[in-house]
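Entry 14: structure prediction run for Fic family protein. Input pasted below.
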Amino acid sequence: MNDGEKLYIWQADVWPQWRYDLAALAGPLTDVSRSQGLLLGRLADVGMALRDQASLAALTEDVVKTSEIEGEVLNVQSVRSSIARRMGVDIGAVAPVDRHVEGVVEMVLDATTRATDPLTAERLFGWHAALFPTGYSGMTRIEVGQWRTDAEGPMQVVSGHMGRRKVHFQAPPAQALAAEIDRFLAWANAETGEPMLIKAGLAHLWFVTLHPFDDGNGRIARAVGDLFLARADGSPQRFYSLSAQIQRERKDYYEVLERTQKGSLDVTGWLSWFLGTLGRAVASSQTTLDAVLVKARFWQRWAGQPLNERQVKLLNRLLDGFDGKLTSSKWAAIAKCSPDTALRDITQLLDLGVLQKTPGGGRSTGYELAG
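Run finished. Output C-alpha cells:
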C-alpha cells in the first residue's frame, strides 16, 4: 500500500459515516420479517419444552458453524451437552466437554441471552479469553483479552502459500484501536435510529473491519451480530442460526465482505446480502423445527417402552442425523458395550418395531429408524 493511497473503507475521510439506501432494502427487510413471522407462528403452537429443544438445536448449530467458518471442527455432541446443561434442558446421556467447546458456548450464550446488557470492552475481552483458554491459537501464542498491538506488522487477512500470498484486507493500525473501539461501542449502546436488523448488519461489518484482536475476530463479529439480532427479536431464545447460513454461503460471504471493505461507505450491497442471508437462515430453521417435532413425536410414541440408557442414546443419535450406516459394531463402540450386548439391544428394538434393517445389506447389516 503506497503512502496516501486509500484502499480500505476505514481510510475514508468521513469514516465511519455509513450510508445505505433504505428504500432499496425495504424488500429484503419485508422478506425477513415474513420468514420470522412464519417461524414464530409455528413455535407459538408448541409447548415450552419443544421451544427449548428448538432453541437448543439452533444454538448448537450456531456454535458448531461459527467455528467451521474458521476451519475449526467442534464435536457436535459436546457442544449440545454444554448448551443443554446451561439451559437446564434434559437430553439424557451427556457427552464430555473440553475447555475450548465451553469457551465458544459461553461466548454465544452470553451474546444472545444477555443481549440487552451493554456491549463493553471488558465483555469483548471476556469473549476473546473464552475462545482461547490456553492463550494459544493453534501453535501460536497470542495476546488474549486485549487489543492487538501489531508488534509483528499490520493486521492483514491473507490467503495463499508463502511467497504467493494475496492480501484481502488490512485493518486499521493498532494505535488507532482504542479510539475506534470507543466510537463503535458508543454507537452500539446508543439509540441511533436504524432498524435493528440494519444495525445488526452494520455492527457485524464494523467490528470485523476493526479486526481488534490477534485472532478470533470473525467469530466475535458474528457474536456481535447475534447480540443485535437477539435485540431485534426481543427474545433471549434463538431459533435460527445466521452463522450456519454464512457457512453454507461462505464463498459469497468473503467475496461481499472484501468488496465492501475496499469500497465506499455506501454499504447498501453488504446490507442487502446480510438481510438475504438472514432471511434464508430463518427459512432454513423451519427444517430444524421439523426435526425437533419429529423427535418429540417419536418419544411420545415409544414413551411406554422400558428402553435402557444405551438404546435411548443411540436412538437419539439416529434422530439427530447419524453419519453413515449404523451397524452392531458401531453400536457397541458408541454405547461402550460388548458386541453381544449391542446385538441384544438392537434385536429388542427390531422386535418392538422401533428399528428396521437398512435395504441392501452388504458386508455388515445396517439399522435405521422404522418408518
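Notes: The chain has two domains: 9-294, 306-369. Will compare against the previous run tomorrow.
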